[in-house]
Structures are given as C-alpha cells and as structure tokens.
Design brief:
This protein has 2 domains: about 50 residues; about 70 residues. It is mostly helical and about 140 residues long. It is built from 4 helices and no strands. The radius of gyration is 29 Å and the shape is elongated. The longest helix has about 45 residues. Helices cover about 75% and strands about 0% of the residues.
C-alpha cells in the first residue's frame, strides 16, 4: 500500500513537471509567434525585389492559355448543369472572362475562368452529394 507521504511526494513531482512543461510550451509559442511576425516582412521585401517587370498580357501564349481556361470553365459549367448543379455566378464569371480576353487582359481572363471552372466542378460534386442525401419527410417539400 502507498503511504500518504509518498502520494504527496508523487503529486508534487507531477505538479512540478506539469508546470515546467507548460512553461516550456508557452515560451516556445511566443518565440514562434515572434518569428512568424518577422517572416512576412522579410518575404514581402524579397518578393518586391524578385518581381520581374510587368509583362504584356497581349502575347499569343497568354491569349491561348486564356481561351483554353475559358473552354475548360465552360465544360465544367455544362457538366454541373447536366445534373442541375450549376451555381448562380459561374456563367457570369465565364462571360466576364470572355470580356476581359476581348479587352486584352489575359491574366484577368485566366483568373476568372479558373474560378468559374472550380465552381463548375464543385457544383457537380455538390449535386451528386445531394442526390444521395436522405432527408426526413418533414424537411421535404
């Protein structure tokens, strides 16, 4: 049987170990937090120096990439629409991407088209997930 004196000694050791562990954990956290605060400033300075001069977005390679991205977005939109999963803004984004391409802003067109493509894919996945959903009768309309 364990004596109460031994029990008390074990509790003191346990308490001391827990306090020491917490001290180490929290002091390490503040060092990590300080490093994280300092890191973005260094990254921003490095990025500014590493940025190349602005390039023209009217090159044929950019235009072809934008057309390809728009075609992929349209394909994803049609796939989502085939299962009634097209999201509200997907078509609008594709139209904006086409307008940006006509205006000569290939970078904006690619960005919008990729966002629209992602929405198309997510809409398709959502529609399939909702088909398998078993809702209680009181929620069905």
């Amino acid at each position: 049987m364990i004596k109460s004196g031994e029990n008390m000694m074990n509790m003191k050791k346990l308490t001391a170990m827990l306090c020491l562990g917490m001290l180490v954990a929290f002091s390490g956290h503040s060092v990590i937090a300080a490093e994280k605060k300092a890191a973005p400033k260094a990254e921003v300075a490095g990025k500014a120096a590493d940025k190349p001069a602005a390039k023209s977005s009217k090159s044929s390679g950019d235009k072809a990439a934008a057309e390809s991205a728009i075609a992929a977005a349209e394909s994803a939109r049609k796939k989502a629409a085939s299962v009634d999963g097209e999201w509200r803004d997907t078509g609008k984004m594709i139209k904006k991407a086409q307008a940006a391409l006509k205006a000569g802003d290939s970078a904006k067109a690619i960005k919008l088209a990729k966002k629209a493509e992602k929405q198309g894919k997510l809409g398709y996945e959502q529609a399939h997930a909702q088909q398998e959903l078993n809702m209680p009768s009181y929620l069905k309309y």
